[in-house]
Amino acid sequence: MTVTAEMLEEGKSVPVPILHQSIEFTKNFMLMCHHSKEEDTLFPALERNGMPTESGPIARMLFEHKIARELSGKLEESAKKYLRSNDPGDLIRDIRTYVEHVSSHLTKENLRLFMMADMILKGKSDEVNRDLAASERSTLTELGKSRSHYEELVNNIESGLAPSQ
Ligand SMILES: [Fe+2]
Predict the structure, then answer these.
(1) Residue 64 Cα, ligand 1 centroid: separation in angstroms?
(2) pLDDT band of 65, cuts 50, 70, 90
(3) 132 CA distance to ligand 1 middle (Å)
(4) What's the CA-to-centroid distance between 163 and ligand 1, angstroms?
(5) Contacts of 58 (CB under 8 A, 6+ apart)
(6) For the segment 90-104, what is each residue's pLDDT rounded down to a tens digit?
(7) What pLDDT, on the 0 to 100 scale, is given for residue 161?
(8) pTM of the predicted model, to two decimals?
(9) How far is the CA of 12 from the centre of ligand 1 (A)?
(10) Averaged over 109-124, what is the pLDDT?
(11) Number of CB atoms found within 10 A of residue 60's CB
(12) C-alpha 63 – ligand 1 centre gap (Å)
């Protein structure tokens, strides 16, 4: 995504399939898999083990997921606009905003929430991991996709954006 924004800023055009694949990854894998896994499995497990959901880290993360979904919607709209008008202004801005939001969200989760979850769910990690894997599987089934589809997508995007020699 950042590479896409940089290319657009430099006045280069981004191949249409790469743009579509980036958007699909953002919308489906990031939002559906990452966020749904937490919302359907991790957060309820933490709640059952005494962590409040109305306030504190879970409420904060839920709020940030909502923002991420909104930003991803805006990003998709501005990608369509770019494809129609060839004007990359909004798309560059929306990619930057989205990447910044999601990076800071993931950092917070890695540094704080997951550490707290490790302590709270001590001894229950097998059960939680099993539920997390099941949640990812059911989301992917709903999307009609597999994890390897998304791994391949990332490889395609990376190789599609690699500067040609
Ligand atoms: Fe999250």
Answers:
(1) 7
(2) very high
(3) 13
(4) 32
(5) 43, 46, 47, 51, 52, 113
(6) 999 999 999 999 999
(7) 66
(8) 0.82
(9) 32
(10) 87
(11) 14
(12) 10
Task: Calculate how far, in angstroms, residue 41's C-alpha sits from the geometric centre of ligand 1.
Answer: 12
Contact 133, 36 (CB under 8 A): no
CA–centroid distance, 34 to ligand 1, in Å, is: 6
Mark out the alpha helices in the chain (DSSP H runs): 2-9, 16-24, 36-37, 43-48, 56-85, 89-108, 114-120, 125-143, 147-161
Task: Provide mean pLDDT across the span 105-126.
Answer: 87
pLDDT tens for 122-154 read 888 788 888 888 888 887 787 777 777 777 877
Ligand 1 midpoint to CA 160 (Å) = 28
Residue 144 CA, ligand 1 centroid: distance in Å? 22
What gap in Å lies between CA 161 and CA 157, rounded to an integer? 6
The confidence score (pLDDT) of residue 87 equals 93
Is there a contact between 25 and 161 (Cβ–Cβ < 8 Å)?
A: no
